[in-house]
Amino acid sequence: MDNNIQHVFLIGAKSLGAYGGYETFVDKLTEYHQHNNKIKYHVACKANGSGCMDEKTLAGVKKLSKTEFIYHNAHCFKINVPERIGSAQAIYYDLAALHKSCSIIEKEKIKNPIIYIMACRIGPFIKMYYKKIHKYGGKIFLNPDGHEWKRAKWPAPVRKYWKKSEQVMVKYSDLVICDSVNIEKYIHKCYDGKGINGKNPETTFIAYGAETKKSILADNDKYFMEWLHSKKIKPREYYLAVGRFVPENNYEIMIREFMKSNTKKDFVIITTADNKFLKKLENTLHFKNDKRIKFAGTVYNQELLKKIRENAYGYFHGHEVGGTNPSLLEALGSTNLNLLLDVSFNREVGGNGALYWNQENKNLSQLIDKVDNFGEEKIKKLEIKAKNRVKEKYTWEKIINKYENLFLN
């Protein structure tokens, strides 16, 4: 084993090249560093269940075994998760991935590895692994994600667990990598003086990345036109939202307010299915009576998704929990007009390149009616400001270079 190479183990993403913030991040990190001979990535992937890895969908994969493959020159290993354990799957997955990483380190006699854990799910177990990894001369880096303990989908005891888990994981991490300035401030506000021996946590800020280049699909691309036709929508005649179908993304408010608006445009929602939440929304809002509301399922083809964003009249972003949200960055890089929920995380990213709404009655509906009458010049000015924010702060090249400096120094 060449110990002049920095080995980095990535734990927390379910798969590469799929939907989701961590999944996109790991995909881009390995893509940009695939020819970097100073860093070797080892990536844990979920072998089964929701969001699992299907390497057959990726180009350039070299199969090593049933559970291992090479992609972007990264060594990827699949973790089987018992689906019967329900919501505990995420905890099991991270623990199993961490255990497997330690086995690889021992087997291949890797010195000074970096274990980069994304999300704070395994707090009660991290102390044991912290000591073990330090025996290898290694370090634990943590991305705490957003405020998982605030998510409405979790019952009170689970939220209490996430909060406690976050506290312990911050304590037993050598470095906390925050993807938002506001998250970094939060970490210090809550956990200064609560590290090992009463120390403050070591933190750094590195955001997620995004692109501003256009989709490779033409405006009349057959694949894109078929998608539009199947959803009965027209270019520039729809508002769009993309993201997980969970309460804290405020779909209920966005749909309710859209229904109150006078716009003749459609509201296209690209999201994962959750029949229980969907039924609850229908019982509350009766949105099926409004033909403008269109649930469009999921779109995993990234070029098609980019094309859909580019052709939207406007983008709604209702996320209120978390740091630099990947879907927001992608919207700022692709969609001309972005309407964001007014919380600190979104303000931090969108700046003067977006318009903002709050959760008060008729606030968003009135904003929709207002922007419906914007002229092309006004929309163009907002588009330029949004894309400039991405170019100045959030390009993947800049973000990946920061990670390279971090891992090697």
Protein architecture, described:
Helix content is 41%, strand content 16%. The two termini are 20 Å apart. The mean pLDDT is 92. The chain is globular and about 65 Å long. Helix 3 (123-135) packs parallel to helix 4. 41% of the residues are buried. The protein has helices spanning 21-32, 89-107, 123-135, 156-171, 181-191, 222-231, 251-260, 275-285, 302-310, 326-334, 344-350, 363-371, 376-393, 396-408; strands at residues 6-11, 39-46, 62-63, 68-71, 74-79, 114-118, 139-143, 175-178, 203-205, 238-242, 266-270, 293-295, 314-317, 338-341, 355-357. The protein is built from 14 helices and 15 strands. By secondary structure, the protein is of the alpha/beta class.
Task: State the main characteristics.
41% helix; 409 residues; nine-stranded mixed sheet; alpha/beta; globular; six-stranded parallel sheet
What secondary-structure arrangement, pairings included, does this model have?
Blueprint: E1 6-11, H1 21-32, E2 39-46, E3 62-63, E4 68-71, E5 74-79, H2 89-107, E6 114-118, H3 123-135, E7 139-143, H4 156-171, E8 175-178, H5 181-191, E9 203-205, H6 222-231, E10 238-242, H7 251-260, E11 266-270, H8 275-285, E12 293-295, H9 302-310, E13 314-317, H10 326-334, E14 338-341, H11 344-350, E15 355-357, H12 363-371, H13 376-393, H14 396-408
Parallel strand pairs: 1-2, 1-6, 2-5, 6-7, 7-8, 8-9, 10-11, 10-13, 11-12, 13-14, 14-15
Antiparallel strand pairs: 3-4, 4-5
